[in-house]
């Protein structure tokens, strides 16, 4: 569906007697007239500081309008599963005192980040297919801020998970001293605040440039790359700054994670007891799986884009949606089925509930 773009009235950067349109005479050739009008339009855009009032989310192209309701319903159920899974983890850990340990505090922070990311993106995607694909100027930048904010928090939380496992396996005797509730609470607070400041700088840079031309965002939600491509000014400095920050946020934690798990593997291989080695690997499996889900697809896409590879629009949108939402959707299942303490506690609760139901049925 084509959305007409209303271009606001803009004052030209030249005097009336210098207007290129006034130089077009009746005897001018068609080529000359076309060239002068293109110069007029291009100069008008480049010298404008007036922002367009709204953006259009293009999302997946080629989907007939009659299927919009079905697509919106699909994303609605994804959001329900994502929200219910992460809320369940938060409530379950909060209510079960035996799980209120530093490791599970990190899990809860990750669940909050996943829930925040899903709530930032999915309702807007659902609204695009159920109601309108138009998003306001300020609404788009607000969404962009929180999309990258929660993504940054998740990256730092992955590094914190690796730190937790590194100390637990490589320095088990010092673990109760180094990794305490207070330590984890402080580290989590710091990473949330640092992420807040980082995204504040990025958003202030990108919102300061004018947006006066095309307003179609080739994605299902607003992100930094999609928005900056629509700017009507030289954004070289912004690209360099944002890319440097993004690579630091992504690769910095990843390098530390790789270092941590190499040290963990070396330490585990030194354990002479076979059962001890198995138990040590088992405690790392959930975190390692979550980390791989988060970093591997992102790394592939970022490397491909930086070497000059260009993805087809629908393929790129599908890949970004998958590596952004799939970890947030699957993480609660990993917690429940791959973390022994959570799985055992959950099974114990279910058995106790079944016993109570059986007793009640016998009495009645």
TrEMBL record:
Key words, A-Z: Cell membrane, Disulfide bond, G-protein coupled receptor, Glycoprotein, Membrane, Olfaction, Receptor, Sensory transduction, Transducer, Transmembrane, Transmembrane helix
Gene Ontology cellular component terms for the protein in this record: plasma membrane
Gene3D superfamilies xrefs: Rhodopsin 7-helix transmembrane proteins
Cellular compartment(s): Cell membrane
Bilayer topology term: Multi-pass membrane protein
Stretches assigned to the G-protein coupled receptors family 1 profile domain: 85-335
Species whose genome carries this gene: Ictalurus punctatus
Family matches, as InterPro entries: GPCR_Rhodpsn, GPCR_Rhodpsn_7TM, Olfact_rcpt, Olfactory_GPCR1
Keyword Transmembrane helix: yes
Name this protein carries in UniProt: Olfactory receptor
Record GO terms (molecular function): G protein-coupled receptor activity; olfactory receptor activity
Keyword Transmembrane helix: yes
Transmembrane segments: 67-92, 104-126, 146-163, 184-207, 244-266, 278-296, 316-337
């Amino acid at each position: 569906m084509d959305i007409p773009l209303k271009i606001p009235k803009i004052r030209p950067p030249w005097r009336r007697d210098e207007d290129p349109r006034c130089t077009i005479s009746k005897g001018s050739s068609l080529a000359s007239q076309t060239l002068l009008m293109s110069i007029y339009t291009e100069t008008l855009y480049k010298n404008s500081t007036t922002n367009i009032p709204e953006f259009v989310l293009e999302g997946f192209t080629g989907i007939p309008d009659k299927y919009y309701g079905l697509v919106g319903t699909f994303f609605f159920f994804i959001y329900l599963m994502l929200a219910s899974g992460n809320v369940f983890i938060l409530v379950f850990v909060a209510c079960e005192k035996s799980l209120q340990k530093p490791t599970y505090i990190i899990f809860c922070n990750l669940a909050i980040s996943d829930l925040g990311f899903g709530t930032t993106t999915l309702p807007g995607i659902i609204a695009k297919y159920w109601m309108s694909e138009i998003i306001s100027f300020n609404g788009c930048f607000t969404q962009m801020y929180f999309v990258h904010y929660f993504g940054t928090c998740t990256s730092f939380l992955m590094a914190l998970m690796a730190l937790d496992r590194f100390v637990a396996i490589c320095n088990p005797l010092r673990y109760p001293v180094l990794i305490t509730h207070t330590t984890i609470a402080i580290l989590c607070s710091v990473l949330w605040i640092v992420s807040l400041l980082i995204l504040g700088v990025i958003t202030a840079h990108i919102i300061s440039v004018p947006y006066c031309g095309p307003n179609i965002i080739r994605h299902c939600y607003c992100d930094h790359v999609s928005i900056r491509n629509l700017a009507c000014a030289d954004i070289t400095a912004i690209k360099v700054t944002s890319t440097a920050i993004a690579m630091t946020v992504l690769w910095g934690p990843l390098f530390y994670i790789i270092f941590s798990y190499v040290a963990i593997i070396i330490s585990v291989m030194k354990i002479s007891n076979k059962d001890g080695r198995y138990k040590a690997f088992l405690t790392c499996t959930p975190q390692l799986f979550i980390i791989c889900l988060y970093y591997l697809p992102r790394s592939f896409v970022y490397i491909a884009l930086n070497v000059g590879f260009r993805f087809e629009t629908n393929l790129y949108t599908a890949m970004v949606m998958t590596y952004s939402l799939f970890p947030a959707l699957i993480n609660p299942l990993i917690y429940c089925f791959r973390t022994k303490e959570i799985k055992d506690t959950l099974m114990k609760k279910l058995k106790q509930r079944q016993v109570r139901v059986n007793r009640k049925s016998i009495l009645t």
